[in-house]
Write a structure and sequence with these properties.
Blueprint: H1 3-9, E1 17-21, E2 24-28, E3 32-38, E4 44-50, H2 54-57, H3 66-90, H4 100-109, H5 113-146, H6 151-174, H7 177-197, H8 204-208, H9 218-232, H10 243-252, H11 254-269, H12 274-286, H13 296-311, E5 325-327, H14 341-351
Antiparallel strand pairs: 1-2, 2-3, 3-4, 4-5
Length: 352
Amino acid sequence: MKKNDQAQASCPRVDIGGQAVMEGVMMKSPDAIAITVRRPDGTMVVKRDEYVAPSKKHAWMGWPIMRGIVNMGGMLTMGMKTLETSMKMLGQEYEEEPSKFEKWLAEKLGKNIDKVVMAVAVVLAVILAVGLFILIPAGVESGLMALNVSGTVATLVGGLTKILILIGYMVFCGFVPDVRRTFQYHGAEHKTVYCNEAGLPLTPENAAQFTTLHPRCGTAFLLIVFVIAMALFLFVGRDIEMYLLRFLLHLVLLPVVAGVSYEILKGLAHADNAFTRAARWPGMQMQRLTTKQPDEKMLEVAIVSMNVALHGLPENAPTTEEGWTVLTDYRQSEKGYVFPKEETENDQEQQA
């Protein structure tokens, strides 16, 4: 069996996952989140925050099905926050003036304007997702039923419509140069996760040998959500013709679908037999649209995030004015690395 297949066949009990960002990678370990971006000057800027899983705060959030619902909400909010943070670290923070509505909302709520802008962005993202993947497919289903098409056929067509919209959206994003580079960092994230799961030293050479397709990827999760939703609605509300009722039913049951899909995704990722390999194959192939082959420097960035998430920041490392750690080599993030004091002082003088 090839090393790629061995890593794919089984995952460790503790799953390390991540997210690609603009010119960087975020990695999340059980107790920390690390974000690393590579700036135009070639240096890598790293930020590490402690992380406490929701299930440690509230036990019920770790129950099967419920943890998938919690994870869905967490992925959205954490993802948006991570993107915002990475842009600041990259030095490309958005310069648009907050809208009058955002300023008014911040004043009324007594909240920081940045938090309000982020909240508005999350709401808009949810509205877009609901419009694309629930509103439009529900309209297609109701339209077909108005033409005397059976509820079963309408539901199947609606489910396929969601998948086609998802594929079309991913293909479109792949043509945007900045997004395509982010897809390369997505590939670097997956390769580094595989390398860690295989127990190999985290080096660009070791990580490069693995595939960019990983069974726990969010892309695979989305596909599973759509398939589970299609199967569920073949039995629940299949013959509802009224568009509004059909839309509301799909919207209300979305958390349930997400919870079930999460359990299925974890089950498929942690087992290896003919059935699980066949079941996860479509989701793995879908990732060909959202992952691209990374270069060596991208792998270095992903490795730094993995090391820092697992082992913490190196001692005596130089920092930016904001307090972010600055590295010039991925090996500086390895466990136990300590910057020579003279080197740190020289770096800080140069930055000053």
